[in-house]
Batch of 2 targets.
Target 1
Amino acid sequence: MDTKLVKENLYTSLKELGLTELEINLYTISLLLGPSPISSLAGHIKMSRPNVYKIIRGLEKHGLAKYSDQKRYSRHFIVESPTVVLEKLREKKEMISKLDNEIVFALPELLSMYHQGEGPTKVKIIQDRENYLKYYNGILDEAKDEILFFGAANEFINFIGWETEKNWIKKRVKKEIFIKILIFSDELASEFKKSDKDEMRETRTLKNLAPFSTSFQLWANKIMIWQPKTPLAVLIEDEYITNMLKSVFDHLWKKSS
């Protein structure tokens, strides 16, 4: 195997574990030298012995260094095997995975607590179907109690596909997230109304509006505007714009009762 590549991978791994440049340097040199007296290490890294001891203490905190069992003044410094580095990387990966799951679980609650204040609006443009579906499924990770859908449901579902929509509905129901949909009166609206109760949904139809092919979806402090013809979607994260469009939705919702 390429020695340079091995060293680069070791460096990246140690960096991932939070080691400083000096700690990485000492670990790498000690790995090559084997058990060594402090004076020898100080000479190799061109540093005073007190500073070498400081770096060693840092490696000890990471669980990657120890001294030999000899008497204090003749002890040699030893680093742990790269196997220990791998074990610690795996432990970190497991911990991050656990935290990731916990954050995903808590995300709806966290977003409901978030207040933007004078922070900037975040806008993201999504232009291909794969990303389209990624963000559509992501809604279920962020929504807390309710999702609002407004517009041309037929155009939207024709683009994403019925299988995708059915799977999304199943996941939403499993997470007990209710949805209100305000859509044009057509066969799809009739179909939705038949299964509203089973699928945790209320369907109402738009009145006195000229037909259009776009739609928007609102949840937490975000709104996604869907344009399935290009296709194109615009994700806006802004509590003020979200509150405005929610007010518009609520007004039309009441009128459609």
Target 2
Amino acid sequence: MSYDFDLFVIGAGSGGVRAARFAAGYGAKVAVAESRYLGGTCVNVGCVPKKLLVYGAHFADDFEQAESFGWTAGKANFDWAYLIANKNREIARLNGIYRKLLINSGVTLLEGHARLADAHHVDINGQRFSAERILLATGGWPQIPDIPGREYAITSNEAFFLEQLPKRILVVGGGYIAVEFAGIFNGLGAETRLLYRGDLFLRGFDQSVRTHLAEELTKRGLRLAFNTDLVQIDKQADGSLLATLNDGRQLATDCVFCATGRRPMLDNLGLENTSVELNEAGYIAVNEHFETDEPSVLALGDVIGGVQLTPVATAEGMAVARRLFQPEHYRPVDYRHIPTAVFSQPNIGTVGLTEQQAIEQGHQVVVFESRFRPMKLTLTESSEQTLMKLVVDADSDRVLGCHMVGPDAGDIIQGLAIALKAGATKRLFDDTIGVHPTSAEEFVTLRTAVVRR
């Protein structure tokens, strides 16, 4: 049978674009459909604009610390609208780059909402196209809890387009998005509270990292409340909001920001016209080759509910393109030792097993840990400390996990991820000469194991 396209991709985010570009490069006839913005969540309402806002929030520290290095400057003033306008210009530039990447790769770009008509047909903008294979890469979407007054809350989608910086903001959630945005708003001068229903935020991260970051955020004036949840939001006559908590307290605020989870974006996708099934968590169920229960339909990225990180989606896109159109170069995605950064203030960088995971997996664990004041801060009044931690298997001497809280943690962890993937031992770390004077050298000078009592 002849088809209009060899591969029809629904969703022009990181994973979909990577799969489409490389499939086209391998000689396939490819189309991509996108109903919102090119580049997906990461480029438009995720990691890229968020990192720009994180940079902006850091300048308050820089201005204050500059005095200790002999600089005298006038009073600093912050303009939220100016930052957002500059951010918007940069995102528009990136949208254009994604458009050129697709078109220059020979991909047919269709802008509109695509819907599955059946296992081999897609409807978009009043037209129907046939495809030998269809790839679903529609990503995720933030959720707001189903509570009274939920319509007054915002999510990360809206936060990037606020017309003005709230004077008071309540951030609800305990994942990395909540922690990052709480740091952004706090750093830019808003009175910020972070509520989380659990005992401590960042579940799944190393316990030392979690407790250390909580201490550092508290030093910065961020008000943390754990074992606390939001149950209702009421709008006041003056336009402010009144948040009611599960313990009966009420907090007046100007903005409620919910970072309370994301769902797969399946709205009006037409899955009912195919044999595609969802798993128990509501994500599209796939096998190790990203194939659904419908043989011609594949899915990847956030919509399948795996490791929801941009580089993971791009790796999955590459794997799909290679397996389908250049199988001799196919390599399955390796989900081990995926490095992760949280752009909190200070940053988190982590790769490999946490101490608890290593113990649960049966390793005899030796832990090396260091807390110190970064050299940059020694002339200042800041009491911020950096944390570095290695989790080592006592029998093989292999380093199982590296964890850091401190400036540039993500950049430092990237190199260590290669070492862990290569199977580096603690002795190799010890035998490596450090770059002096840097914070990174601490990872190769950790000599004394932590004694757990």
